[in-house]
Amino acid sequence: MVNEDGPEMSQEKLEALVKDMEIMLAEVEQLKIHCTKQTEEVNQVVQDLRRENKELSQKYEYICRDLKEAKETIAQLQDTKFAFESKERQAQKLNRQL
User: Fold this and answer.
1) How far apart (Å, rounded) are the C-alpha atoms in residues 7 and 23?
2) How far, rounded to the nearest angstrom, does the alpha carbon of residue 95 sit from its chain's CA centroid?
3) Sign of CA dihedral 7, 12, 18, 24
4) Phi/psi class of residue 52: alpha, beta or left (left: φ > 0; alpha: ψ in -120 to 50)?
5) How far apart are the C-alpha atoms of 53 and 64, rounded to whole Å?
6) Helices of type H across 1-98
7) Which of the residue ranges 2-6, 16-20, 66-70 would you say has the lowest mean pLDDT?
């Protein structure tokens, strides 16, 4: 740098620059520590969400299976009901004929 005293930087300016650089390095280190903590927290949240997603997927599969079984049971019960009603109508016809 060129200044009024000559091409070289004064000792005072150089010390101020070194002090500023030390402050900046300390701030960078603090930011690094902060970012590392945040990264760890985010990784933990991601792991928790993955676990929760897996659990929800399993529950969804169980619910789908249970729903399918319930629909099959309802269909069987309806078939049984229709068969019973048909037999009941046949019995009523026979009773009328007698």
Assistant:
1) 26
2) 66
3) negative
4) alpha
5) 16
6) 11-97
7) 2-6
For the chain, give the number of residues. Answer: 98
**Model pLDDT for residues 43-76, shown as the tens digit of each residue:** 999 999 999 999 999 999 999 999 999 999 999 9
Structure tokens at 71: 């629909």
Query: CA 95, 96, 98 angle in degrees (round to 5)?
Result: 65
Cα dist. 91→86, 88, 94, 96 in Å?
A: 9, 5, 5, 9
Handedness of CA 62, 63, 69, 72 (dihedral sign): negative
Residue 98, pLDDT score? 79
- Looking at residue 96, its pLDDT comes to 87
Q: How far is CA 39 from CA 15, 59, 72, 81, in A?
A: 36, 30, 49, 62
